[in-house]
Design brief:
Layout lengths: L12 H4 L2 H14 L11 H8 L4 H6 L16 E5 L7 H13 L7 E5 L10 H10 L4 E5 L10 E3 L13 E5 L3 E3 L12 E5 L2 E2 L4 H7 L6 E6 L8 E3 L6 E6 L9 E3 L6 E6 L5 E2 L7 E6 L17 E6 L15 E6 L15 E2 L1 H8 L6 E6 L10 E2 L8 H5 L3 E7 L4 H13 L5 E6 L5 H10 L15 H9 L3 H6 L5 H9 L4 H13 L5 E5 L3 E5 L6 E5 L10 E7 L2 E6 L12 E6 L4 E5 L9 E7 L7 E7 L2 H6 L4 E5 L4 E4 L14 E3 L2 E5 L4 E6 L4 E7 L7 E8 L3 E8 L5 E6 L9 E7 L17 E6 L2 E12 L2 E12 L2 E14 L10 E5 L15 H8 L4 H6 L16 E5 L7 H13 L7 E5 L10 H10 L4 E5 L10 E3 L13 E5 L3 E3 L12 E5 L2 E2 L4 H7 L6 E5 L8 E4 L6 E6 L7 E4 L6 E6 ...
Helix pairs in contact: 12-15
Protein name: F-box domain-containing protein
Pfam family, one: FBD
Organism: Brassica napus
C-alpha cells in the first residue's frame, strides 16, 4: 500500500505537477510487476549529475517516483527550460516560476530559457535572471522570439544585479520583442562569450556601454535586428579574439559597422550595407566576409592585409585587387550576380577576372585558391570577362599547391581560359579540383577539363624542350620511371604514349637498358599477385595477376625476353584428362597481355623458349619442343615455332633434339640456352631456327646443384652450390657471339652461414643476377611446417666473396600438400622492365568484328585508325554507323569538311544510322542535303541532324532537303533540330516505316508544313516536339491515329499559340505549356500523363480528356480546374502546385490556393492508391499561400483504397498544412506508408515531432520523415 500525506493540498507542488494524473498511472504500473530499482541506490551527487543532463521539466517529474527522489532535482545546478507544449508559452513560464521556488542548489552553473512561441506579458524574465545572478550563475541563455511584434515593445528591465554580475562567463540574448536598456554602470568582469541575436536596444549607445564594460570578452556573435534602434554598431573590445556579425537590414541602407579590435584572430561578417570603418587587425588568422553590394569599395578590406585565410563573397572583385596580402595562404572567392533591382548606374553586368590576377600578384605565398560563383534570382550564369595576363603571379610559380573551381560551367571561353592559365603556370600544383555546375554535358566538360594543359615543377623546365631532345632524355630514364612520368603533363603523356610506335626510340632504349646492370629486377608471381623487386633498394611493387592466372597452381613457367614475359599456364583441375597448356605474352610494365592459341598437337613434358630474329614488333618467336626421355631416346622430338608476324604455329620437321635439358632456360641476345643432362649448354638460334651445342660446363660434383642465368646481356653465368657445405661457385662465359665459348671461374665463397638457395627439388630454381662486381643478388625460396600445411617464403640474399652480407624475407604463402605431390607457390625470373612496343591483339580479329567495334565510336576517331597499318586502311570505310560531333575549336567548318571527305570514301552498302551534331554556328557551306541524300540512297534507318544556331540570321535559310528524303522507305528514327533553317515539307511526303520523330526547335515554312509531315507517317508511335518561339506555327495540330507516346514543350507565353491533339491511341503523354492547350480529344487508352499547364487560371476543358488515365502528374497554379472531373481508373496522382509571379497575376485571381477542390477530386477518384502533394516557390522564395477548411464527408478512396501518401516540401508552420495532413492521416484506413518531407532544416525536430503526434487511423501505417533513418511503425 502507498500512503500520501494529507498535506498534499492544491497549493502543494505535488498537486501542481499533476499528481492526480501521474499517481494513478504509477499505481497501475506498480500493480503489474515489481521493478528492481537500482538507480535509487546511487549517491545523491551522481543522481544530481544525471538529472543535470536532461531538461528541467523532465528532471522535475522524477519527484513523484519516491521519497528518495522527492528533493534530488532541487539540487540540480543546471536549469534548462524549453517550450514544447501546444498551449503557447504560459505553461513554460508557470514551470519556470514554480521550479525556481523549490530550487535549493547553492550555486547555479547555467540557466537556459527557450520559448518557441509568442512571448507572454506575464513572463517575469527579470525575476528569473535575478535568481540566477544571486546564485552565482556562469551561463545565461534567454531565447524569446516574437512572431507577432507588439506595437510598443516592452522594455526589458533586467535587475540591477545582472549588469554587475561577477560570475557570468557566457551570455546569450535573443528577444526581439523586448528592449534592452543597459545602464552606465554595467560591468561583466568575467564575461568571455556574448551572443546578441536580434536584440533591440533602448538607444544608440546601449550596446556600446554593454561591450565597453566587458574587459575579458573573447567571443562576440551579433545578428542585427531590422529595427534595433542602432545606426552605427560600434565594437571596440581590445580583448576580442573572435567576432561574427550578420546584418540583414534593407540592402545598402546606412547601417554601418565600426570595428576596432586589434586582437582579433577570427572574423566572420555578412553584411548587405556599409561596413563603415574597420581598423587594422595585425593578428587576424581567418576571415569570412560576405559584402553583398554591387560596387564594394576597398577601404574595409585594407584592414585584412595580415590575414592568413580569407573567404570573400562579393559581387565584384575589383575591391581587393590593389591590396597586399603578404601572409595570405588560403583564399576562397565566391562571386554573386546582382539582380536587376540591385544594379546601379555605371555598374557593368560583367564581372572581370583580371583583378583576380592582380590579387594573386599581391599574395606571394598563396597555397590554396578556391573560386566559386552563385546565381541571381533567375538562375542565370554570372557574366565573366577574361584576358590572359602577360606576367605570371609569383604565387603560381612558386607556392600554389591546391586549386579548386566550384560551379564550373564549362560552356564559356572565359572560364576555360582562366582555368587553363592557372594550370599552365602553377609549377607546384599538387591537387586541382574542378566541379561542374550541373550534369548537362557532364562528360564533355570533364574531358575538356582533363585536356587542359597543366604544368608542374617537375615538367616546367623540360616541357619547353624540343621533342627530339626530350626523347633523348627519356632514352636514359628507366622504363619504370618513364611510366610514372606520364601524369606530369599532357605533353609528356602524349609523348610517352606514342613511344611504342617509335622504333628508333625502342631500339635505343633497349640497348641502354640492356647495358645498365642497375635496371635488373626480380619478378615473382604467386596465385593472385605479381611482385617486382629491386635487389639493391629492396623496393617492391605489387599488382594483381591477370584474372586467368589467379586460380591456384595455374602458373607453371615464366621467362623473359626484352621485358616481355612468357607465361605458361597448365590446368590441373582434371588429372585424368590431358593437360593442355595455355600461353600468354605479358608486359608487366604496360600491364598488357596477349593470349597465344596453342597448336593442335599435345607435346608431353614441353620446354618453352622465347627470342627474336629481329627486334621488330612482328620479329619475336616462341619455341616449344618435347623433352620426355623416351621421345629423346627415339629421336622423335617435335619442335614447333610460333611467329608473331603471322600469329600461327608451324612445325620444324628438320630439327630434332638429341639430349634432355633443364626446363628452365634463359634468353640472351634473342636466343635461348639450357643446361643439358650431359653437362653442357644447348642453344637455339631463332634466326637459323636450329639447335646447337654451345659449350661444356665445369665439372659437376655429386650433391652439387647448378643454375643458369644471364650476365651482362651477352654472356652466360653458371651458379653451383654444394648440398652439404653450401659452398657457392660462380662461372662466367665469354661473349656468346664468339666462335668458341667457354666458362671461367668468376668467384667462389665458402663461408659459414651461407643459405641453401634451393631446399627441395619441388621448389623452383632460385634466380640471381649481378648488379655490382663480384656481388650476387639471389632470390630463393624456403619452407617450414609439418603435416599437410606448409608456409613457403621468398628470401632475397646478397652474397659476395666475404659471405652472406644481407638476407631479407620478401613474401610468404601458405599451401597444402597431399602425399609427396607438391607444386610451387612462387615462380620467378630475372626481369628487365623495358618500354616494349605494345602487343597488337586487336588486328588479329575478323573484319566484321573490327567494323562492329568502330561502329561504337565517333566517326572522327574511326577514321583516324586508317593510319595504323595497311590492315586498318579500309576497315573504317565499311562502318554502317556514322556519327559526327563538332568538338574542334575552329567552328563548324572542320566538321563539315570531315563529313564531306569521309562520305566520299565510305563504302558500306547499307547505312544504319547517320548522326550530325554541330555544337557551333551553322555555316552556309554545309551541304546538308548532300549528306541526307547519301544516307537515303544507302537505306538509312536512323537520321539525326542537330544544327543549332547561336546567332540567328535575319532571314533563315530554307533547308531544301532532297526529294528522296521525303519518300524514304527505310527511315525508322528521325531527329531534326535546327532553328536557323526552315523546313518546307512537300505535299507528297511519305515515311511508311517512320516510328520515332523528334522535332526540336524546328522552323516550318508555313502553318501546314508540320501537318503534312505528320499526316504521312502511318506507323508513327513516338513523337517529341519542342517548339521554337519563331516556328511560324500558331496552332500545332497532331492527328496521328497510331501515336502511342507524345511529348510536347512550349515555353512561349503568348496566348496565340495553342495545341490541338487528336490521337485516340495515346498511352503516354507529357505536356509542358505556358499557352492555350486548345482542343485535346478523348484518349481512352491513356496510361500515364504529365501535364505542366503554367497559367494562373487554367480551365478544366483540356483535363476532361484525361478521365481514363491511370497515372497522372499535374503541375498547376490552381487546383480548381480538376475538382469536377471523374477519374474512375486513376490509381496514382501527384500534384505539384506553383505560385505565380507578380507579373502572372490576372484580375480576379486570388493569391491563396484553396485545397478544398483537392478533396472533391478525391471524391471523384474512387480507387486512388497513391497520392503525392508538393508545391514550389516563386522567384521571391516565399511560401505558396494555402487555404483549407475541413470537409464533412470523407472521400471513398481514403476509406478503402489509399495506401501511399506523400507530402513534399512540407513547411510545418502553417495551420492549413498541418490540418490537411492530419485530415488525411485520420481518414485513410488502408494507409501503409505516409511520407512527409519537411522543406528545410529550420526547426526540423519540432516539425517532425508534430507530424509524429498526429493521429493515424491505420494502425499498420508507417511514417517516414526527412530526419528518419528508419521507418516508424504506426
Amino acid at each position: 500500500m502507498i500512503r500520501f500525506s494529507s498535506s498534499c493540498s492544491s497549493s502543494s507542488p505535488l498537486f501542481f505537477f499533476g499528481a492526480n494524473i501521474i499517481i494513478p498511472f504509477v499505481l497501475r504500473k506498480l500493480k503489474k510487476m515489481p521493478r528492481i530499482d537500482r538507480i535509487s541506490a546511487l549517491h545523491d551527487d551522481l543522481l544530481v549529475n544525471i538529472l543535470s543532463q536532461v531538461p528541467t521539466k523532465d528532471a522535475v517529474t522524477t519527484m513523484v517516483l519516491s521519497k528518495r527522489w522527492a528533493l534530488v532535482w532541487t539540487m540540480v545546478p543546471k536549469l534548462e527550460y524549453e517550450d514544447t507544449s501546444k498551449e503557447g508559452g504560459k505553461n513554460l513560464w508557470r514551470l519556470v516560476d514554480k521550479s525556481l521556488q523549490l530550487h535549493k542548489a547553492p550555486v547555479l552553473e547555467s540557466m537556459h530559457i527557450q520559448a518557441e512561441r509568442q512571448f507572454t506579458d506575464d513572463a517575469d524574465v527579470g525575476k528569473c535572471v535575478s535568481y540566477a545572478v544571486d546564485h552565482n550563475v556562469r551561463e545565461i541563455s534567454l531565447i524569446i522570439p516574437s512572431f507577432i511584434l507588439p506595437s510598443q515593445p516592452k522594455i526589458l528591465l533586467l535587475p540591477s544585479n545582472f549588469y554587475t554580475s561577477k560570475t557570468l562567463v557566457n551570455l546569450t540574448l535573443s528577444c526581439s520583442a523586448l528592449v534592452v536598456d543597459v545602464p552606465s554602470l554595467a560591468c561583466f568582469p568575467l564575461l568571455q562569450t556574448l551572443a546578441l541575436l536580434n536584440v533591440v536596444f533602448n538607444d544608440e549607445s546601449s550596446h556600446a556601454r554593454l561591450l565597453a564594460n566587458c574587459p575579458a570578452l573573447s567571443y562576440l556573435h551579433v545578428i542585427r535586428y531590422y529595427s534595433d534602434n542602432v545606426t552605427r554598431f560600434i565594437v571596440k573590445v581590445p580583448s576580442l579574439k573572435s567576432f561574427t556579425y550578420t546584418d540583414n537590414h534593407e540592402r545598402y541602407s546606412a547601417m554601418p559597422l565600426v570595428l576596432d579590435s586589434p586582437g582579433l584572430q577570427h572574423l566572420s561578417i555578412f553584411d548587405y550595407g556599409d561596413l563603415g570603418s574597420i581598423q587594422n587587425m595585425p593578428h587576424l588568422e581567418t576571415a569570412y566576409v560576405g559584402h553583398l553590394v554591387p560596387q564594394p569599395n576597398d577601404k574595409f578590406l585594407r584592414s585584412f592585409s595580415s590575414v592568413g585565410s580569407l573567404h570573400l563573397r562579393l559581387m565584384d572583385v575589383e575591391c581587393f585587387s590593389a591590396i597586399n596580402f603578404p601572409r595570405l595562404m588560403k583564399f576562397k572567392l565566391h562571386l554573386f550576380k546582382p539582380s536587376f533591382s540591385e544594379l546601379r548606374p555605371g555598374y557593368s553586368e560583367y564581372c572581370s577576372l583580371e583583378p583576380l590576377m592582380l590579387f594573386l600578384h599581391n599574395s606571394p605565398v598563396l597555397k590554396v585558391l578556391t573560386i566559386s560563383y552563385g546565381v541571381g534570382l533567375y538562375y542565370e550564369d554570372l557574366p565573366l570577362s577574361w584576358n590572359q595576363q602577360s606576367s605570371v603571379p609569383g604565387c603560381l610559380l612558386a607556392h600554389l599547391e591546391i586549386f579548386v573551381w566550384d560551379k564550373f560551367g564549362g560552356r564559356r571561353r572565359q572560364e576555360r581560359e582562366c582555368v587553363a592559365y592557372i594550370f599552365a603556370n602553377s609549377k607546384c600544383l599538387k591537387t586541382a579540383t574542378v566541379l561542374p555546375r550541373c550534369s548537362y554535358r557532364l562528360e564533355e566538360i570533364v574531358e575538356d577539363i582533363k585536356s587542359l594543359y597543366r604544368r608542374s615543377s617537375s615538367s616546367s623546365s623540360l616541357s619547353s624542350l624540343h621533342s627530339e631532345l626530350l626523347e633523348e632524355i627519356l632514352c636514359r630514364v628507366p622504363a619504370e620511371a618513364m611510366m610514372r612520368s606520364k601524369p606530369t603533363c599532357k605533353q609528356w603523356n602524349d609523348l610517352i604514349k606514342a613511344l611504342p610506335t617509335n622504333k628508333t626510340f625502342i631500339y635505343k632504349h633497349l640497348d641502354r637498358s640492356s647495358s645498365d646492370s642497375s635496371s635488373k629486377r626480380f619478378i615473382r608471381t604467386s596465385d593472385s599477385s605479381v611482385r617486382i623487386i629491386d635487389p639493391v633498394t629492396k623496393e617492391r611493387s605489387t599488382s594483381p595477376m591477370p584474372a586467368e592466372f589467379q586460380e591456384s597452381n595455374k602458373v607453371h613457367t615464366i621467362l623473359q625476353c626484352d621485358g616481355l614475359v612468357l607465361c605458361i599456364r597448365r590446368d590441373y583441375s582434371q588429372i585424368s584428362q590431358p593437360r593442355r597448356p595455355h600461353i600468354a605474352i605479358w608486359n608487366p610494365l604496360l600491364r598488357r597481355a596477349k593470349w597465344i592459341d596453342p597448336s593442335g598437337g599435345l607435346l608431353p613434358n614441353s620446354v618453352y623458349g622465347m627470342g627474336y630474329k629481329t627486334r621488330e614488333e612482328d620479329g619475336y618467336k616462341i619455341l616449344r619442343f618435347s623433352n620426355s626421355w623416351f621421345k629423346v631416346a627415339e629421336g622423335d622430338t617435335q619442335v614447333e615455332v610460333y611467329e608473331f608476324k603471322n600469329s600461327s604455329w608451324r612445325t620444324l620437321d628438320h630439327v630434332k633434339v638429341d639430349v634432355r635439358v633443364d626446363s628452365k632456360g634463359v634468353s640472351v641476345m634473342g636466343n635461348m640456352y639450357w643446361l643439358t643432362e650431359k653437362n653442357g649448354i644447348l642453344g637455339f638460334d631463332f634466326t637459323a631456327e636450329t639447335f646447337k651445342d654451345v659449350c661444356s660446363c665445369p665439372p659437376l660434383f655429386f650433391g652439387h646443384r647448378r643454375y643458369l642465368s644471364c650476365f651482362r646481356e651477352d654472356r652466360l653465368s653458371l651458379l653451383q652450390q654444394a648440398k652439404e657445405s653450401k659452398k657457392i661457385e660462380v662461372w662466367i662465359s665469354n661473349n656468346l657471339a664468339d666462335e668458341s665459348v667457354s666458362f671461367t671461374r668468376y668467384f667462389s665463397v665458402d663461408k659459414p652461414g651461407l643459405p641453401a638457395l634451393n631446399l627441395h627439388e619441388s621448389i623452383l630454381h632460385p634466380v640471381y643476377c649481378f648488379v655490382k662486381p663480384r656481388r650476387m643478388f639471389a632470390l630463393c625460396e624456403g619452407d617450414e611446417g609439418e603435416g599437410v600445411t606448409y608456409t613457403t617464403y621468398g628470401i632475397l640474399c646478397e652474397i659476395d666473396e666475404g659471405g652472406l652480407r644481407n638476407q631479407t624475407e620478401t613474401e610468404t604463402e601458405t599451401e597444402r600438400i597431399y602425399g609427396r605431390l607438391r607444386y610451387p607457390i612462387f615462380c620467378g625470373h630475372v626481369y628487365v622492365p623495358k618500354k616494349m612496343p605494345h602487343i597488337d591483339r586487336i588486328s588479329a580479329l575478323h573484319d566484321d568484328l573490327l567494323v562492329n567495334i568502330l561502329s561504337q565510336v565517333p566517326t572522327k576517331d574511326a577514321v583516324t585508325t586508317m593510319v595504323l597499318s595497311k590492315r586498318w586502311g579500309l576497315v573504317w570505310t565499311m562502318v554502317p554507323k556514322l556519327e559526327y560531333n563538332d568538338t574542334s575549336k575552329e567552328g563548324g567548318k572542320s566538321l563539315w569538311r570531315l563529313v564531306d571527305k569521309s562520305l566520299q570514301l565510305h563504302k558500306a552498302p547499307v547505312l544504319q544510322s547517320l548522326r550530325i551534331q554541330a555544337e557551333r554556328q551553322f555555316t552556309d557551306d554545309a551541304d546538308v542535303g548532300k549528306c541526307v541524300s547519301y544516307a537515303v540512297d544507302h537505306n538509312v534507318r536512323e537520321l539525326a541532324l542537330i544544327i543549332p544556331s547561336l546567332i540567328l540570321p535575319t532571314q533563315p535559310k530554307i533547308l531544301l532537303l532532297p526529294s528522296n528524303f521525303y519518300t524514304s522507305k527505310t527511315l525508322v528514327n528521325l531527329t531534326l533540330s535546327f532553328s536557323a533553317l526552315v523546313i518546307d515539307v512537300p505535299s507528297l511526303a511519305c515515311f511508311p516505316l517512320l516510328q520515332t520523330l523528334a522535332l526540336l526547335k524546328v522552323v516550318f515554312k508555313d502553318e501546314s508544313s508540320h501537318v503534312r509531315l505528320l499526316a504521312n507517317c502511318p506507323a508513327l508511335s513516338y513523337l517529341r516536339v519542342n517548339r521554337y518561339f519563331g516556328d511560324n506555327v500558331k496552332t500545332f495540330i497532331v492527328k496521328v491515329p497510331s501515336l502511342k507516346s507524345f511529348t510536347y514543350t512550349q515555353n512561349d507565353r503568348r496566348a496565340s499559340r495553342s495545341l490541338v491533339l487528336d490521337s485516340p491511341g495515346l498511352r503516354h503523354l507529357i505536356i509542358f505549356d505556358y499557352g492555350d492547350l486548345g482542343s485535346i480529344q478523348n484518349m481512352p487508352h491513356l496510361e500515364t500523363a504529365y501535364v505542366g499547364h503554367l497559367v494562373p487560371q487554367p480551365n478544366d476543358k483540356f483535363l476532361r480528356s484525361f478521365s481514363s488515365v491511370g497515372n497522372l502528374y499535374l503541375r498547376l497554379m490552381d487546383v480548381a480546374c480538376f475538382s469536377a472531373i471523374n477519374f474512375p481508373r486513376l490509381m496514382k496522382f501527384k500534384l505539384h502546385l506553383l505560385k505565380p509571379s507578380s507579373s502572372e497575376f490576372v484580375p480576379g485571381y486570388s493569391e491563396y490556393c484553396s485545397l478544398e477542390p483537392l478533396i472533391f477530386f478525391l471524391h471523384n477518384s474512387p480507387i486512388l492508391k497513391v497520392l503525392t502533394i508538393s508545391y514550389d516557390v516563386g522567384p521571391d522564395f516565399e511560401d505558396l499561400p494555402l487555404s483549407w477548411n475541413q470537409q464533412s464527408s470523407v472521400p471513398g478512396c481514403l476509406l478503402s483504397h489509399l495506401e501511399i501518401f506523400v507530402w513534399d516540401k512540407f513547411g510545418g508552420r502553417r495551420r492549413q498544412e498541418r490540418e490537411c495532413v492530419a485530415y488525411i492521416f485520420a481518414n485513410s484506413k488502408c494507409l501503409k506508408t505516409a511520407t512527409v518531407l519537411p522543406r528545410c532544416s529550420y526547426r526540423l525536430e519540432e516539425i517532425v515531432e508534430d507530424i509524429k503526434s498526429m493521429y493515424r487511423v491505420s494502425e499498420s501505417s508507417q511514417l517516414i520523415t526527412h530526419s528518419d533513418s528508419t521507418i516508424l511503425e504506426g
